[in-house]
Structures are given as C-alpha cells and as structure tokens.
C-alpha cells in the first residue's frame, strides 16, 4: 500500500502529469503499439517467420537431365515445388533452384524459368516474344551481353543438360531394341511359340501348364510328367531360353 502511495506521488514529480492522465496516456500508447504492429505481422506469423529463418531453404542437389526438349523444360518453371527450377542459355540447361527468390513463382525473373531465355538476356528484355533460345539477328554487342550472362551462369549454377529438338535418349533406344528383339524372335522360337503342333500331337488341349512348359523349363522337371515328345519340347524350351538370353544380351550391349 505504501508503495502504491509513493508511486502516485512520484508520477507528478517525474512526469508533471496527474496519475490519471499518466495511466490514460500509457494505456493509449500500448493500444496504438498493438494496433500498428498487428497491421504488419500477426503474432503467430511472427513466430512462424522466426522458425523459417532458423531453417533456411536448402535446394535439392542438382540432377543431371541429359537431353531435354523445350516442352519438357517448361515443366521446370517452379509451378511444381517438388521439381527443380531450370533455365537455359544458348541451349545449355542450368539448375537455378538455389536462386528461387529470383526465378521462383513471384520472383522478378520467374518468366525465365523453364525456358531458354537467351534472346531476352541478350536484349535485356522482359518481353514475352523474346523468351526464346533463337539468337538470330543479334548484334555483336548483344551477343557479348549474352556471353556475359552465360559465363555468370556457368560459374554460379550446375549445368544439368541441354535442349534438343527431339528426344532420342538411350533409354528409348534400349526400349526400342528390346521391343524389336521381342517382335522379331528367331524363326525357331517363333515356330515353338506359334506352332501348337507339339500340344496337338499329344492330343491335349492347350493348358496353362503347357504354356508354362514353353516359357519355363523348370516346371517340366518339377511336374516329372512323362509327356510324349517332352524331350523335344525341353530342347526347344532350352532354345527359347537361349533366344531370350540373346535378347537380354542385346539389351545389356545397348546400354
Ligand atoms: C532496373 C533494372 C534492373 C535492376 C535494378 C536489376 C537488379 C538486379 C539485382 C540487384 C540482381 C541481383 C544480383 C545478384 O545478387 O547477383 C539482379 C539479378 C538478375 N537480373 Fe536484374 N536488374 C534489372 C534489370 C534486369 C533485366 C532487364 C534483366 C534481363 C532481361 C535482368 C536479369 C537478371 C537476372 C537473370 C538476374 C539473376 C542472375 C542470377 O541468377 O544470379 N535484370 N538484377
């Protein structure tokens, strides 16, 4: 109580204000502070921001993409946050994920992401029509500007691939080889697969089991069944395995 009385006497001494006026002004100042600070950042947001600051954004390691078409490149424009941000200069693709603040959605240079921006960079242009890798008709000065950008990118970012008109990836080649191998089996194999004579000779209807004999010789041994002409089938089955082996070898060779 004594403290309270002393406080009430001290306020006019130090501030020249009556205690009522002092507390009114103090209350108003606190209210104004909360009002103004609340207009910019809410208390929850402020906490979130601090947590985000403590964990800075670490982009995933750049992944080599090899040959990429312009259409494929456009998927790496930041619209899918799980994909890296890519950008190309003179057909060379760079992973610019580490500069998400520049090229990510809402960034000042977001329009360059997922594109070959050579012409725009050479002309220092943000026009949509210049967002192309076509550098025909540029002046020596503009080409020099582009070269400077290229050097900057080569130094700062990891090159992850190059733009191609059409995709002829090794994977496609392997697949087409594989398909070709299966589509064009040796005459012998084709006969075994298509000629159901073996089955008909036995007088049996084609069954799942018989199909298995054609594709898997081990089943014959497991069943231990004595089917006439089985030795022949076994040999032929072995041939199929060899043929299939050839297809496999072809795949490995191509890779
Ligand atoms: C008023 C004009 C401009 C100003 C004030 C400006 C400012 C800046 C600044 C401050 C940076 C960050 C540099 C750094 O930290 O490395 C930057 C980066 C960049 N600027 Fe500009 N800029 C302007 C115009 C342009 C134009 C016209 C283009 C191209 C059309 C352009 C393309 C870029 C690119 C691509 C980057 C990012 C480079 C990187 O990935 O490191 N800027 N700009």
UniProtKB/TrEMBL annotation:
<feature type="compositionally biased region" description="Basic and acidic residues">
    <location>
        <begin position="222"/>
        <end position="255"/>
    </location>
</feature>
<keyword id="KW-0349">Heme</keyword>
<dbReference type="GO" id="GO:0005783">
    <property type="term" value="C:endoplasmic reticulum"/>
</dbReference>
<keyword id="KW-0812">Transmembrane</keyword>
<keyword id="KW-0446">Lipid-binding</keyword>
<feature type="region of interest" description="Disordered">
    <location>
        <begin position="168"/>
        <end position="188"/>
    </location>
</feature>
<feature type="domain" description="Cytochrome b5 heme-binding">
    <location>
        <begin position="68"/>
        <end position="164"/>
    </location>
</feature>
<dbReference type="GO" id="GO:0005886">
    <property type="term" value="C:plasma membrane"/>
</dbReference>
<keyword id="KW-0472">Membrane</keyword>
<feature type="transmembrane region" description="Helical">
    <location>
        <begin position="20"/>
        <end position="41"/>
    </location>
</feature>
<dbReference type="InterPro" id="IPR001199">
    <property type="entry name" value="Cyt_B5-like_heme/steroid-bd"/>
</dbReference>
<dbReference type="GO" id="GO:0046872">
    <property type="term" value="F:metal ion binding"/>
</dbReference>
<dbReference type="InterPro" id="IPR050577">
    <property type="entry name" value="MAPR/NEUFC/NENF-like"/>
</dbReference>
<comment type="similarity">
    <text>Belongs to the cytochrome b5 family. MAPR subfamily.</text>
</comment>
<dbReference type="InterPro" id="IPR036400">
    <property type="entry name" value="Cyt_B5-like_heme/steroid_sf"/>
</dbReference>
<keyword id="KW-0408">Iron</keyword>
<keyword id="KW-1003">Cell membrane</keyword>
<feature type="compositionally biased region" description="Basic and acidic residues">
    <location>
        <begin position="201"/>
        <end position="211"/>
    </location>
</feature>
<feature type="region of interest" description="Disordered">
    <location>
        <begin position="200"/>
        <end position="255"/>
    </location>
</feature>
<dbReference type="GO" id="GO:0005496">
    <property type="term" value="F:steroid binding"/>
</dbReference>
<dbReference type="Pfam" id="PF00173">
    <property type="entry name" value="Cyt-b5"/>
</dbReference>
<protein>
    <submittedName>
        <fullName>Membrane steroid-binding protein 2-like protein</fullName>
    </submittedName>
</protein>
<keyword id="KW-0479">Metal-binding</keyword>
<keyword id="KW-0754">Steroid-binding</keyword>
<keyword id="KW-0256">Endoplasmic reticulum</keyword>
<keyword id="KW-1133">Transmembrane helix</keyword>
């Amino acid at each position: 109580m004594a403290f309270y009385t002393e406080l009430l006497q001290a306020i006019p001494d130090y501030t020249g204000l009556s205690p009522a006026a002092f507390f009114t002004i103090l209350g108003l100042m606190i209210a104004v502070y909360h009002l103004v600070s609340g207009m910019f950042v809410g208390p929850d947001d402020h906490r979130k921001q601090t947590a985000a600051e403590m964990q800075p954004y670490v982009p995933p390691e750049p992944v080599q993409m090899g040959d990429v078409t312009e259409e494929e490149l456009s998927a790496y424009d930041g619209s899918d946050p799980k994909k890296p941000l890519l950008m190309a200069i003179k057909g060379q693709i760079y992973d610019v994920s580490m500069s998400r603040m520049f090229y990510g959605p809402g960034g000042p240079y977001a329009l360059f992401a997922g594109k070959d921006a050579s012409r725009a960079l050479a002309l220092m242009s943000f026009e949509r029509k210049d967002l192309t890798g076509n550098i025909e008709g540029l002046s020596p000065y503009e080409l020099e500007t582009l070269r400077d950008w290229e050097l900057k990118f080569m130094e700062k970012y990891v090159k992850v691939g190059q733009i191609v008109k059409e995709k002829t990836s090794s994977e496609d080649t392997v697949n087409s080889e594989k398909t070709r191998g299966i589509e064009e089996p040796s005459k012998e194999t084709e006969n075994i697969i298509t000629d159901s004579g073996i089955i008909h000779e036995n007088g049996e209807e084609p069954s799942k089991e018989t199909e298995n004999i054609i594709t898997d010789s081990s089943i014959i041994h497991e069943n231990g069944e004595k089917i006439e002409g089985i030795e022949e089938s076994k040999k032929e089955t072995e041939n199929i395995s060899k043929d299939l082996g050839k297809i496999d070898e072809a795949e490995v060779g191509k890779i």
